[in-house]
Amino acid sequence: MRPTRSRAALCALLTSLMLAGTAAIDAHHRPAAALDNGLERTPVMGWNSWNRYQCNINEALVRRQADAMVSTGMRDAGYRYINVDDCWQSSRDSAGNIVADPVRFPGGMKALGDYIHARGLKFGVYSDRGTLTCAGRPGSQGHEYQDARSYAAWGVDLLKYDNCNAQLDQQSQYETMRDALAASGRQIVYSICAWEFKPWQPKAGNQARTTGDIGDDYTSHPGNGLLPVDRIIDINNDYAMYAHPGYFNDPDMLQVGNYGTGSTNGNGMTDTEYQTHFSMWALMAAPLIAGNDLTAMNAATRTILTNPEVIAVDQDPLGAQGRRIRDLGDQEIWSKKVQGSGVRVVALWNRAAATASIHVDWSDIGLGAGTATVRDLHARADRGSFTGGYTTAVPSHGVALLRVAGAETPDAVRITKTDPRTITGLRVRTEFLINDEWHDDFEDTGTLDHSTTLNLDGNGATWNGSRWVGDLLRTAASTAGPAVVTVDRTDPRPIYGVRVSVSFTVDGQPHYDYEDLNLLSGTANLQLNANGGSWNGTQWVGDFLRPSAA
Ligand code: GLA
Fold first, then answer.
1. Which residues are known catalytic residues?
2. Protein residue with least CA distance to atom 12, ligand 1
3. What CATH number corresponds to the domain at position 268?
4. Is the pTM here over 0.90, yes or no?
5. Statement to judge: residues 382 and 451 lie in one domain
């Protein structure tokens, strides 16, 4: 974990540990880890009115965007949802039914949905869990089932559900709308917009916002109160372990192509920065919701938004969120496992003000040291075959997005020691998802001065109300030799959400850290070092466990 950027993840961990103590649930009614509505097996792709237009919307504008979705090739590139954000509503009728603004949407929402569906697209709307939406229109509080029935009658395919003007319990209100959508008789993707990740959200929605609202800025721009792209990427990375088919983290909608034209949105970005924004969203398996005027896209915007090779990274069926695996200061290496043996997508991100050369070693991304082929997904060109690793120059604020195909290594986590001091009392804990359910176990391996092999398996355990616990991590071998703990997979099923945490003692002081791997794939090499860190009142916490080359 990177201490300067991962405090929120620690809070999330503590919250999930607290949740682990909740009352037992009948084994036949276990909640799945993700909302069980069968939707969003890959992240949603579409368009939303907010980033460009805020409240200045009407049905003619939405229809023009739907037409442009088709005529620009966006639909054929995979974009489907046309989402009408805040300000389509005006009031409730005498029976309490939500009514569309009669001036801006005179044809009504059903007709708008029909128009969108006739173009092979899907229809999304917006509401809020409180009494009023963020822009002051009627919210759904107390009308959840009634509103869900209206949406179903209009042919709505997605609901974005916001967090303003609410006094009641957040989780219960989001779950009430989840249940209302399920009871509506229509399959409706449920998009939670509560501006920060909470561990209950993957069970409530198909996607959930992890951050406040995005600005049209690459890096911070004092004054507009919106988050820049670079900051959002850092925050969204903290929740990577929760993403898998059925639930994806939502770092907010795209600003690609707005160039500062949205009325409240920021200074705009360069095309290089928009390409970084889009590429990192794809690497993080984020919903790709365009927020620009599709009727007036320039060539650069269209190229970025419709690049099929970048979209394929986002839509990869494994559904794992890519993560930062190495932080070299202003240069970073990110990796995402995608379908296929030995295949990774790598983002080499240069956050510095000048061009920099960035190197990825095959061992960083869990591949064997031999040769691997490299394809540049922006240039859409093969770069050749390279031994051991690859180096390329990356412009300021740019990413190189590479598809690397090499030799798969065994699915394992190897923890080696770089600290010369004696490390005692080592406890290795694993939390992970199998078949959409959380599993949790630890093993005490004692002094780190020999070789220990642990086996990870999701079978044979009991349900404690929120996760499976049992002997899911166990010692298979313990022999004299180099100081290393290896966690091997014995369960053949896909293992998502892998968090490996270590607690241990150095010089009489307790220490703690964790690393998220998201998907157990290839060999993840981690190194353990007790230097740095800060005292949290009980133990030292800091970046004690971090990725390393083999
Ligand atoms: C909040 C949301 C935005 C947008 C507006 C609408 O700020 O986070 O995405 O939906 O409300 O008022």
1. 162, 213
2. 134
3. 3.20.20.70
4. yes
5. no
Rounded distance between C-alpha atoms, residue 2 and residue 440, angstroms: 23
328 lines ligand 1 (CB under 6 A): no
pLDDT score at 31: 53
DSSP-based three-state secondary structure for 290? strand
Q: Token pair 């965007």 is at which residue?
A: 65
pLDDT tens digits, 323-363? 999 999 999 999 999 999 999 999 999 999 999 999 999 99
User: Is residue 420, in this structure, part of any structural domain at all?
Assistant: yes
Q: Is the CB of 128 under 6 A from ligand 1?
A: no
What stretches in the chain show pLDDT beneath 70?
1-34, 222, 263-264, 550
What residue owns the CA closest to ligand 1's atom 1?
134
**Closest ligand 1 atom to Cα of 213:** 8
Judge if the beta carbon of residue 135 lies within 6 A of ligand 1: yes
Q: Where are the alpha helices (H) located in 372-529, listed in sequence order? A: none
Dihedral of CA 49/53/58/62: which sign? negative
Among 159, 193, 197, say which to mutate for ligand 1: greatest number of ligand atoms within 8 Å of CB: 193
Is the CB of 213 within 6 Å of ligand 1? yes
By most ligand atoms within 8 Å of CB, the mutation choice from 49, 55, 85, 224 for ligand 1 is: 85
**What range does the domain containing 94 cover?**
39-314
The DSSP annotation for 364-407 comes to GGTB-SSEEEEEETTTTEEEEEEESEEEEEE-TT-EEEEEEE--
CATH assignment of the domain containing 339: 2.60.40.1180
Same domain flag for 387 and 354: yes
161 touches ligand 1 (CB under 6 Å)? no
- The predicted-structure confidence for 357-399, as pLDDT tens digits, reads as follows 999 999 999 999 999 999 999 999 999 999 999 999 999 999 9
227 pocket-lining for ligand 1 (C-beta < 6 Å): no
| Residues 541 and 460 placed together within one structural domain of the fold | yes
Residue 31 lies in a domain: no
Domain C-terminal end among 361, 376, 405: 405
Q: How many domains does the chain have?
A: 3
Residue 429 and residue 375 share a domain:
no
193 lines ligand 1 (CB under 6 A): yes
* Domain identity same for 304 and 274: yes
Instruction: Choose one of 354, 375, 405: the last residue of a domain.
Output: 405
Atom of ligand 1 nearest to the CA of 134: 12
Q: What is the largest CA-CA distance in the chain?
A: 78
Query: Closest Cα partner for 262 from 290, 286, 232, 222?
Result: 290
Any idea of the CA torsion for 390, 395, 401, 405, to the nearest 10 degrees?
A: -10
Residue having the nearest C-alpha atom to atom 11 of ligand 1: 134
